[in-house]
Amino acid sequence: MSAILELTNLRKHYATQKAVDDISFSIEQGSIFGLLGPNGAGKTTLLRMITGIFYPDSGHIQFDGKTFDPLNDIIKIGYMPEERGLYKKMKIGEQAMYLAQLKGLSKAEAMQKIKFWFKKLEMETWWNKKVEDLSKGMSQKLQFVTTVLHEPKLIILDEPFSGLDPLNANLIKEEIYGLAKRGSTVIFSTHRMEQVEEICDHIVLVNLGKKILDGTVHNIKQQFKENKFSIKLNELPGTLSAPAFNIVNVNDNELVLQINEGFKSNDILTHFLHNQCTIESFHEILPTLNEIFISQVEGTHATARAFQKTDN
Amino acid sequence: MNKILIIIQREYLSRVMNKRFLLTTILTPLIMVGFIAGAAFLAATDKEMHKIAVVDQNGFFKGNLRDASDIKFEFPTDVDTANYSKKGYTDIIIIPKFEGTAKAEYIIRSKKRIGLSLESKIEDRINDAIEDQMLQQAGIDRAQLDSIKSSSQFAEMKSLEETGDSVKESSAALSYGIGFGSGMLIYITMFIYGAMVMRGVMEEKTNRIAEVMISSAKPFQLMMGKIIGIGAVGLTQFFVWILLIFGIIAASQFFIPQDVLQQVAELQKANAQMGPGGAASIAQAGETAQNLYKFQNTMSTANWPLIISCFIFYFLGGYLFYASLFAAVGSVVNEDPQDAQSLMLPITMPIIFSFIIMSRAVEDPSTSMATWASIIPFSSPMVMMARIAYGVPGTVPYWQLAASMLTLLGSFLLTTWLSGKVYRTGILMYGKKVGWKEIGKWAFRKN
């Protein structure tokens, strides 16, 4: 598959800090991409450059096979910023209509698509209500619909699930999968690692304006694995120590082990089989993205930077 | 381009398709008319009667000193400064022996201070009385004097304006009215619609709509769409008002009796034959017809097409000039409305200042102050309207009008361009108090 978006050496400096400092990566068409990073890492600035709100100081953005041209390409992008907003006094139907028309849809097209989405997300009765009458979760749903209404090639969602109850969050999640299946590419920016783990194919972690991780979720987990295994026995053997592993943790009949250099997982099994143990389960412990995130970001003064952030 | 149209449409419709708009558009003129009528009513009825006791040592003031609507002179014999208020008089005047040579001091005493206009009115009456007495001494009797007084209002000013080799009737009062009225209207609308633009921008910023919008349209489109949309709301309001005025005038025609209208038509015909310099024979027409004719005649002295087209130009030009500045301020302001106050000051000051110059220019449209102020774009919309009413090219030469219009056009393009840059940065800037120095930096940086 070809890359829909390719960033090369992107830079954006503000007076007080380097918000985005030499970041390059590419996103495959139809993938769900996670852009991760602590507060003030430069994610918003990066997204604003991708959506054409800011111009990069230097670097190149390739969008859909051509150099990114904000004026024309903007209608192929749907952006739901973290700071969401809608006109409070406007009726919901008119609001959706307005935003759809600004994205280049004709009135008839817009009407048909709004009806389709409103029906899909059970929002049909909302048409004549005003935004100020909606709860936070409801306006979130509306915002999502207005973002994806024009079926953009690239959908950028900044914290899309904040404020949604699990039911509605699932609804939106299903829609995100559906959009990706139909060929849209989704960039997903969040701090919620369990969602990333669940949804994203590919992630990039940025911190202090630099890219520190880039790869598929599987590869990154492999990269950071500590060769830990969990084994459950029906009864603990007399001697636990062996040259093949160290014991990290013992909890009743369940052990967490770390394999020593030069040994394989089979060596653990062999050891316990030799000791006449009945093995109930055996599996590798991979680090969670959360753990990777914390281990990568901790100690880099990211929190201090968040305090003096000036990047919006 | 299409996006600007969509934005204009929203800004316009969301304000016009609104009960409040309908209400304010119809109620504002009614309230204004009510205020004016109320003020006139109060001025007419709320006058304090002054019952003045006159202690006259000459004897001729009785009979010559005439009362006014709010002054009544009486000549009691047993009144002095000690007891006049007990006897029911508000004031007492002591008139000294009249020598007929030097100025003498006349003393008026009262419990309550006398106003300036009342004092000069009383002085005029006393001088009139002395004049009458002198004329009578010269041999003109009372009856002659009265008949001369009642029928000697001969002069009626009619000013003619020379344009090339033709003359045209002009009316200073009408020019004043038009000049002040249109200047005032521009002043008010600049504030109302300018503030509306600012509030709209602030709403977009504080409700965090700006970022959603800016990912769909360019900041400049967003700003111009708002400015033009609200300007169109202003124009709509004007047209509704003009329609209302014409409606009222047309309706009032039905209440004028047919024969009066006919007399007016005859007067017009007669006057047309005499040419603008002449005076029509208006002897046989009734008083209402004459007044109506005079009113119509005065109204027709103004160059209405020029005035109305200039008004629309200066309204739009002035509005666009200031609205973009208001938009820039709105984009910089954070949630705190007090920020808005202090940032607005440099914009509102020139508007208020222009109003002061305008109210001077409308009395004397040819001073160098008025001329300059009518060319400088900060004040030209108001001041030029005040001057245009006095006639183009008589009072305002064509070159001045052209210079004024061109500078206004050029500078509104400039303010819009600079404001657009400030707006672009300001609209996405949260949680930071911004000073003028920083705004200047945004406005003048390259990219």
Describe the protein.
The complex is a heterodimer of chains A (312) and B (447). Chain A is of the alpha/beta class and 312 residues long. Chain A has helices spanning 43-50, 70-73, 92-102, 107-120, 136-148, 166-181, 193-199, 217-223, 265-274, 289-297, 302-307; strands at residues 3-13, 18-28, 32-36, 58-63, 66-67, 77-80, 154-158, 185-190, 202-207, 210-216, 228-233, 245-251, 254-259, 279-285. With 447 residues, chain B is an alpha/beta fold. Chain B has 2 domains: 50-142, D-Maltodextrin-Binding Protein, domain 2 (3-Layer(aba) Sandwich), CATH 3.40.190.10; 163-444, no CATH class. Chain B contains 15 helices and 6 strands. In chain B, the strands form 2 sheets. Chain B has a 4-stranded mixed beta sheet with strand order 2-1-3-4, with no helix packed on it. In chain B, strands 5-6 form a two-stranded antiparallel sheet. Mean pLDDT of chain B is 81; it is low at 276-281.
CATH class category of the largest domain in chain A: Alpha Beta
What composes the largest sheet of chain A? 6 strands, mixed
Question: What would you call the structural class of chain A?
Answer: alpha/beta
Strand content of chain A: 25-35%
By CATH, the architecture of the largest domain in chain A is named 3-Layer(aba) Sandwich
Helix and strand sequence of chain B: HHEEEEHHEEHHHHHHHHHHH
Give the count of helical stretches of chain B.
Answer: 15
- Strand arrangement within the widest β-sheet of chain A reads 6-7-8-3-9-10
How many discrete structural domains of chain A? 2
Q: What's the overall geometry of chain A?
A: elongated
Oligomeric state of this protein? heterodimer
**What can be said about the biggest beta sheet of chain B?**
4 strands, mixed
Largest sheet strand order of chain B: 2-1-3-4
What share of the residues of chain B does DSSP label as strand, in percent? 5-15%
Distance separating the two termini of chain A = 34 Å
Q: Largest protein interface?
A: A-B, 29 and 24 residues
How large is the radius of gyration of chain B? 30 Å
Number of helices of chain A: 11
CATH superfamily of the largest domain in chain A: P-loop containing nucleotide triphosphate hydrolases
